[in-house]
């Protein structure tokens, strides 16, 4: 049977939206269940996880889907990094352009996903939340049956609870980064930010910009703090300036790494060495200095102002855990103490899948405390015991190019336009995930290699351009897709649902923007 199968998609964030679009492309009949009253997930206007001043930490070249490029006036004045409002507007335009709205059920919280007793279909139970229910009406529980399921509910639903010594003895306020919107509630206060990842550093820097806020930050490890732009030498006299991930990700770079890094450990040593040069400014300050050589996992934060805030003593960084709290006095393990009015916890999210049964969670090896890989899947998408159900966006970092490939893969398989992976392939994939977890040299994000992961899935689903053929037949196009920065649009050059003309125009625009402008 080709097409016409029904698919329930849990979540109307980027993963759910691209799943809906891909399902329509493959002639499936999608229904997106979104518990909020609007689309966007992390980027939702009604219930997002972002703060007022947040700009994306990856550029428009990565924060896009393959056949829907950003127009320059959609992020006017934001450099290459759109504001969260511009990001939401991009997603709203995407919904409009691909006519997705009619397939989304808003205010519908999926509470259970289970198979019919004969194992043929899936039942989705959901309750309509008060956002769309009439006033004072109790949420109504409903059921709907589907052929297939795409789990795209996102990993950032619930803030991870934090264990603070003497938490109950603290007489100030404690909040989480997910609740942070702007400086207003912190004016005139002494704030302790707990956390060393992107949110912790970015929020600490934003608070520290205001002279009436005193900021202390307690960290476990010192990050490498990259600016949003990187400068690379070029053959002509002007160096080329790239958004950081544009400089990092290319097929040429990925091949170079594979050839030259003899082992994971050696790659960490080389990477740390390179980062210590790129981040030479932070190496001058005692609080951010990292000794070299180092084979410790390179741990990166992208922030434009953080390093300067620390160097200019606007943020006091403490690398010792909290040992004692009494009233508003917080004492650290090195014996130093500070008076604190407000503790802001930026310790990340705990990864929740409350709508899946205990049995399914067991199959998935679900471990919400595992900060790297909370569920074990083949290429973060398939599981051998679960038929007609797949995952999109359940890996770190859930970058747009990869979630789109997952969505296209599932849609092609569910619509029977592509063979599903065999049990052996899936089991092999699970083994790879377990090996990542067991390795003593774990990357900050286990699936950060966007080019490798992208090309692997693209090859499976038949959208990987033939590099050798293109090299001999069209050297210009080869430069665009091999030497230049990685672009998700290279996956629209060939295969199912390709759009070669659009893909080439996007790739040429990237070339003109970053590789020709200084000539
Ligand atoms: C503060 C912050 C900043 C970030 N910045 C960047 C960035 O700059 N660049 C980048 O690439 N990534 C960034 N990310 C990662 C971000 O998660 C992705 O950009 C993207 O939002 C992932 O999309 P998603 O659809 O998988 O998840 P989400 O965006 O979380 O969307 C999931 C959706 O599913 C819905 N949902 C969940 N459970 C249910 C249920 N039971 N029933 C119905 N609906 C449900 C939610 O309401 C939500 O709308 C950031 C994340 C955070 C928290």
How would you portray this structure in words?
The chain has 519 residues and is α/β, with parallel strands linked by helices. The protein folds into two domains: 6-157 and 351-461, FAD/NAD(P)-binding domain; 159-223 and 299-349, FAD/NAD(P)-binding domain, CATH 3.50.50. Helix content is 30%, strand content 18%. The chain has 15 helices and 22 strands. The strands form seven sheets. A five-stranded parallel β-sheet has the order 3-2-1-7-22, with helices on one face. It has a five-stranded parallel β-sheet with strand order 9-20-10-11-16. Strands 4-5-6 form a three-stranded antiparallel β-sheet, with no helix packed on it. α1 (14-25) runs parallel beside α10 (400-414) and α10 (400-414) runs parallel beside α12. The longest helix is centred in the C-terminal third of the chain and has 16 residues, at 423-438. The mean pLDDT is 93. It binds flavin-adenine dinucleotide (FAD). Flavin-adenine dinucleotide is lined by residues 10-16, 33-36, 41-44, 49-50, 56-58, 63, 109-110, 152-154, 156-157, 199, 355, 393, 398-399.
Q: What's the CATH C level of the largest domain?
A: Alpha Beta
Helix content: 25-40%
Name the average pLDDT.
93
- Class computed from helices, strands and strand pairing: alpha/beta
Strand content: 15-25%
Rg, Å, rounded: 24 Å
Number of strands: 22
Globular, elongated, flat, extended or rod-shaped: what is the shape?
globular
CATH architecture of the largest domain: 3-Layer(bba) Sandwich
N-to-C span: 55 Å
Q: What small molecules does this complex bind?
A: flavin-adenine dinucleotide
Biggest sheet statistics? 5 strands, parallel
**Number of discrete domains:** 2
Strands of the largest sheet, in order across it? 3-2-1-7-22
CATH superfamily of the largest domain: FAD/NAD(P)-binding domain
Family: Belongs to the FMO family.
Protein name: Flavin-containing monooxygenase
GO molecular function: flavin adenine dinucleotide binding; N,N-dimethylaniline monooxygenase activity; NADP binding
Organism: Heterostelium pallidum (strain ATCC 26659 / Pp 5 / PN500)
């Amino acid at each position: 049977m080709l097409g016409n199968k029904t698919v329930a998609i849990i979540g109307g964030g980027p993963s759910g939206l691209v799943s809906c679009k891909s399902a329509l492309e493959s002639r499936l009949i999608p229904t997106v269940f979104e518990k909020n009253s609007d689309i966007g997930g992390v980027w939702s206007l009604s219930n997002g996880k972002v703060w007022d001043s947040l700009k994306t930490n990856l550029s428009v070249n990565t924060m896009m889907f393959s056949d829907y490029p950003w127009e320059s006036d959609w992020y006017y004045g934001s450099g290459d990094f759109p504001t969260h409002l511009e990001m939401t507007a991009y997603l709203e335009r995407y919904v409009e352009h691909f006519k997705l709205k009619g397939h989304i059920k808003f205010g519908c919280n999926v509470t259970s996903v289970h198979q019919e007793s004969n194992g043929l279909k899936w039942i989705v139970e959901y309750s309509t939340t008060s956002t769309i229910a009439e006033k004072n009406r109790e949420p109504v529980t409903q059921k709907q049956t589907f052929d297939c399921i795409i789990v795209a509910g996102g990993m950032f639903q619930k803030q991870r609870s934090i264990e603070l010594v003497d938490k109950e003895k603290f007489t100030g306020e404690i909040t989480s980064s997910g609740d942070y919107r702007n400086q207003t509630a912190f004016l005139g206060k002494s704030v302790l930010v707990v956390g060393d990842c992107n949110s912790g550093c970015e929020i600490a820097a934003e608070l520290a910009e205001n002279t009436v806020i005193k900021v202390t930050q307690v960290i476990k490890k010192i990050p490498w703090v990259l600016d949003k732009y990187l400068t690379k030498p070029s053959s002509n006299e002007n160096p080329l300036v790239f958004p950081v991930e544009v400089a990092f990700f290319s097929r040429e770079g990925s091949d170079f790494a594979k050839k030259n890094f003899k082992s994971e450990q050696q790659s960490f040593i080389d990477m740390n060495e390179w980062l210590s040069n790129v981040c030479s400014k932070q190496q001058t300050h005692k609080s951010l200095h990292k000794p070299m050589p180092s084979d410790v996992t390179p741990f990166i934060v992208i922030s434009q102002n953080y390093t300067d805030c620390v160097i200019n003593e606007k943020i006091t960084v403490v690398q010792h855990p909290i040992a004692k709290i009494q009233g508003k006095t917080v004492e650290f393990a090195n014996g130093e103490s500070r008076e604190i009015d407000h503790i802001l916890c930026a310790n990340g999210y705990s990864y929740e899948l409350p709508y899946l049964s205990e049995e399914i969670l067991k199959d998935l090896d679900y471990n919400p405390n595992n900060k790297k890989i909370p569920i074990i899947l083949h290429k973060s998408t398939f599981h051998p015991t679960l038929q007609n159900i797949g995952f999109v966006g359940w890996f770190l970092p859930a970058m747009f190019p990869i979630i789109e490939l997952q969505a296209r893969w599932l849609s092609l398989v569910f619509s029977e336009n592509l063979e599903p992976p065999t049990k052996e392939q899936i089991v092999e994939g699970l083994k790879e995930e377990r090996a990542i977890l067991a390795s003593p040299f774990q990357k900050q994000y286990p699936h950060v290699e966007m080019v490798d992961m992208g090309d692997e899935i693209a090859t499976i689903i038949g959208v990987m351009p033939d590099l050798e053929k293109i090299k001999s037949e069209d050297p210009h196009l080869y430069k665009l897709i091999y030497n230049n920065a990685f672009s998700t649009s290279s996956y629209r050059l060939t295969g199912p649902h390709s759009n070669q003309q659009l893909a080439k125009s996007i790739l040429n625009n990237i070339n003109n923007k970053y590789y020709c402008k200084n000539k």
